[in-house]
Amino acid sequence: MKAIVVKEAGNIEDFVEKEVDKPKVNADDVLIEVHAVSINPVDSAIRKGKMPFKLKSPMILGTDISGVVSEVGENVSDFSIGDEVFTSYKVNRGGGLAEFVSIPEKYVIKKPEKVTFEEASALGIAALTAYQLVNKELYQVQEGETVFVQGGSGGVGTYTVQFAKQNGAHVIATTSRNKELLESLAVDQVVNYKEEDVPKAYVNKADMLIDTVGQGTETLPVVVEGGRALTPATPISDDKAAERNITIDRITYEINTDQLKNLVDQVARGDLKVVIDEVYPFIQDGVQKAYELSESGHAAGKIVIKVK
């Protein structure tokens, strides 16, 4: 089968097309003919050797996948050949940038007909991270609170602002070039961080800061004394938070198929919007361009590779 692979520590231009063996289907596995796979920053971290694990080299990156069931293992009972499905699998397994991927049944979810393959593949890590940021125990965004979202127009950010609004919050979000996009997602106040000194201009404006881009320490002044701050990125300074009694934490998203099922159902009902910046073809040049956009830090929403 065709795959787009790269060696560990390889550069973006080192992605190449390669023929590899179709993955083995174990008794509890579902073989998916891949139709779409979305790009996540963690893919680049894996490629650069910045994670505590390594994929087999040459690596097939990609965790958030949608497609059609091609084969099922002997113990699989909930899926049949031809089912349209999606999955967000373990990042230390990869496998998405290929024509087929084999995934344990417990991680596979049926895709609603109203949701496209591209939309389904663009949920996964980004949507789960955002949902878990907004709804983390003891940090959960409450109705009537003001939430400041740092990086509102990125993959995680576009979901975060929507979930915060669902919880009844007043949402302030930063971007440099996507004001209209954030307004379309019902953000109450859009901040151009290139034109304003955000920590000074918005000091004490928020009950909670959700930092999606790793600038939480610098942006902490926006939080009122005794407030809360969360990030999935660079940890926020304990000392800076303690100065004003701000409760902080850093989360690592957890795979949760029940939450993903809820989120894809929201998309099918029109209650959640999947923002996709670009869809690239499943060719060497397409994958390279996808990672160039991802690593630029300027994508508006998600980036998807259309495999089929």
3D architecture notes:
It is built from ten helices and 15 strands. The protein is globular and about 55 Å long. The longest helix is centred in the C-terminal third of the chain and has 13 residues, at 257-269. It folds into two domains: 2-122 and 274-306, Quinone Oxidoreductase, Chain A, domain 1 (Alpha-Beta Complex), CATH 3.90.180; 127-250, NAD(P)-binding Rossmann-like Domain (Rossmann fold, 3-Layer(aba) Sandwich). The strands form three sheets. Strands 3, 4, 5, 6, 7, 14 and 15 form a seven-stranded mixed beta sheet that branches. With 308 residues, the protein is of the alpha/beta class.
- The strand count comes to 15
Low-confidence stretches: none
> Could you tell me the strand content as a percent range?
25-35%
Instruction: Give me the strand/helix succession.
Output: EEEHEEEEHHEHEHEHEHEHEHEHE
What Rg, in angstroms, do the CA atoms define? 20 Å
